[in-house]
Structure formats: C-alpha cells, structure tokens
Amino acid sequence: MKQLTRISSVLGTGLATLALSATLQAAGPSKLDVASTFNTNIFIGEGAVRLAQELETASGGKIKLKVHNPGDLVPAFEVFNSVSSGAIPAGWDWIGYWAGTVPVTNLYGALPFGPTPEAFMSWMWAGEGLEILQSAYDPYNVKVLPCFISPQETGGWYNKEINSIKDFDGLRIRISGLGAKVLNKFGASTQLIPGGEIYLALERGRIDATEFSVPQVDQLMGFEDITKYYYFPGWHQSASWFSFLINKDVWNKYDDTTKAQFETACRATLQWSMAEAPAEQMRVIRKLEQKGIEVKRFPDEVLVSLRKAWEEVRDEEMKKNPLFKKAYESLMEHSKLVDEWYELQAIPR
Fold first, then answer.
1. Which residue of 80, 98, 186, 342 has the lowest C-beta tally within 10 Å?
2. Could you give the CA distance from residue 241 to residue 44 in angstroms, rounded to a whole number?
3. Which pLDDT band holds residue 195 (cuts at 50, 70, 90)?
4. pLDDT tens figures, 162-193
5. Residue 28 falls in which region: left (phi positive, over 0), alpha (psi -120 to 50) or beta
6. Could you give the strand order of the β-sheet that contains 229-232, starting from the edge strand earlier in sequence?
7. 262-317: pLDDT as tens digits
8. Start-end ranges of CATH 3.40.190.170 in the chain?
9. 157: phi > 0 → left, psi -120 to 50 → alpha, else beta; which?
C-alpha cells in the first residue's frame, strides 16, 4: 500500500511538472528584442515604444519588449528577413519596405490617391485587410500586427518649384513604393534611401528632393536646413501603416490569452497614433513657415497628370499580381461604404 502511495505521489508530481512546463511553454518568452526600422526618438519609431508600454500594461508586466534602434541588431532593411529566419524574434517596421519580397505590401505602405486613414483603418481591422496581409506573410513564417497608422504624408521637400509635370523629368528624388513607379513615367530618377541617410544624400547632392513622412517626423530630420519648398498634398501616400512583426515559431509559443494581450496593446497603440497626429501636423507646419520654408501645393494640372499615371501603374500591378488586385478591390469597396456614410451625414457649412 505504501509502495502504491509512493508511486501515485511520484506520478502526481511528474504530471504537475509536465503541466507547469506546458503552461510555461504556452506563455512564451517573457522578453522580446525588437529591431526597429526607425529611431525611437521620432513619432513613427516611438510607436514601437508605445506598443511596449501598452503590452506591459495589458499583460500585467509579464511580457516586455526591448526596442532597438536601426543597426543595433540588424540594418533597417533587413528586419523582415531576420524575423522570418528567426535571427531576431520581432521587429517594428513601415510595411512598404518589404514590397520587393511581398509585393502587396506596397498597397499597405503607400497607396497613391488612396482612402483616408480612417477608412484604411476600418478595412484593416473590420474588413479583409489584416486577413489578406497575413496570408501574404504566412509563407515567410511571420505574424503581423498593424499597430500604427500615420496621416496622409506630405508631397515632399524640393529645392525647385514644381510648376508643371515636366519639372519631374530628370529630378533625382527619394521616394518609395508605388509613387516612385508613377514618377518614373515622367522621367524622374527615384531612390529608396533609409531615413537616417536622407539628409546626407540631400546635402551632398545625391538627390534633389525627398519625401519621407509627416511634418511631425520631417521636422526632426533637418530637411528645412537644405531645402526651400515643402509640397502638398501627399498624393503618393494617403495613409501609412506600421506594424509589429514576430516570428511565428515564437508567436505560437504564446497561449491564446497572451496573444490577445498583444492584439489589445496593438489596438491601443493604433488609437494613440490616430489621436496624436492630425492637429500636431499643422502646429509643425506653422513653425516651419516661420523658419522661411515655403509651403506650397502642387498645381491642379500636375495632380491630374499624376492621377492618370497612377491609374496606369495600378492596372499594371493588378494585372501581374492577383493578391494586389484582390486587396485593392476589397479596400476600394470598403472605403466606398465609409465615404457614402459620411456623405449621407454631411451638414453644409
């Protein structure tokens, strides 16, 4: 009898140990290193820090993220591949950086003449946006959480006026994504340069103009010291998505509760980004004007030409990339419903 009791005790202890081990495994790592594509002292990089704070709160301090600036772990443009391979567990990015590997991310990162951030956000989290994006990331073993959206970007910084579409011919400009393909049709020489290298490229004459982000971010880059004109609207980027990436082998170690805490922190960060940005941009623009920067709008005829060229680029992308076509049509259908709702509620001023 004593022998049976002893065996039962040993078995019970073993099962309890196994159960505890399974629970710990389900909980996943308590700390994650996050390689950011942006410095954390600018708004779009600060999003990663905000996510870390929200996640620590949501998890009751059980999960912590350590956000690293570009180059600390891997170079900015190697974040996706490094998360995919498992070289690093997690990253923070601008989604459009990975268009060379995952073409549909062009749409999420920088869609010319696209919908408002509000409509884009609605499609991402209440439409098909996240489902389509995740399906594109699955083959790379990456889980994606879109946690930050910035407002429509600016048209960029120039040292010469843009009075006609011909002024883009021969212009060397830092611009990314689908907008670059549009400007190529008008003879512009486009380059994708990491944020931290743009100032030097402008100063040394490697490029003549640049777009980068919203005024809140641009003001910290020093572009006003070496350019004269600040153009609007940001026709090439109606909204910009930034996301948290995590290797799926790491993600799958977490239990459902912990995964939900990540998603809760992500949504809280998204709400913060949408609330923080719009009014601040005008405050910054007024400061830039006081420094002598001329804030200008592209002439209407230039915007008309750019839109026509965009329609050509769009059709080309839809023809060669079925997933882009699916995403674009889904986004347009969803945003049309959002627009119709606001039009129905519009009150004359």
1. 342
2. 10
3. confident
4. 999 999 999 999 998 899 999 999 999 999 89
5. left
6. 189-191, 172-174, 209-210, 156-158, 229-232, 294-297
7. 999 999 999 999 998 889 999 999 999 999 999 999 999 999 999 999 999 999 99
8. 30-151+238-278
9. beta
- Alpha-carbon distance of 331 to 111, in angstroms, equals 11
> What digits encode the pLDDT tens for the residues 59-90?
999 999 999 999 999 999 999 999 999 999 99
pLDDT in the model for residue 268: 98
Q: What is the CATH number of domain 156-235+281-335?
A: 3.40.190.10
Asked whether the CA dihedral 185, 103, 318, 231 is positive or negative, the reply is: negative
- Alpha carbons 246 and 347: distance in angstroms, whole number: 44
Residue pair 250/90 in contact (Cβ under 8 Å)? The answer is: yes
- Residue 53's identity, in one-letter code, is Q
* CA 346 – CA 348 distance, rounded (Å): 7
Per the rule left: phi > 0, alpha: psi between -120 and 50, beta: everything else, 348 is: beta
Its CATH architecture, for the domain 30-151+238-278, is: 3-Layer(aba) Sandwich (3.40)
Q: How many angstroms separate the CA atoms of 64 and 55, rounded?
A: 7
Secondary structure of the chain: what % helix, strand, coil (to 5)? 55, 15, 30
Residue 170 — left, alpha, or beta (φ > 0 → left; ψ -120 to 50 → alpha)? left
Q: How far apart, in whole angstroms, are the C-alpha atoms of residue 325 and residue 309? A: 17
Query: 214: buried, middle or exposed (CB in 10 Å: 19+, 13-18, 0-12)?
Result: buried
- pLDDT tens across 137-157, in order? 999 999 999 999 998 999 999
280: nearest Cα among 46, 119, 95 = 46
Give CATH 3.40.190.10 domain extents, the chain: 156-235+281-335
Name residue, tokens 């082998």: 249
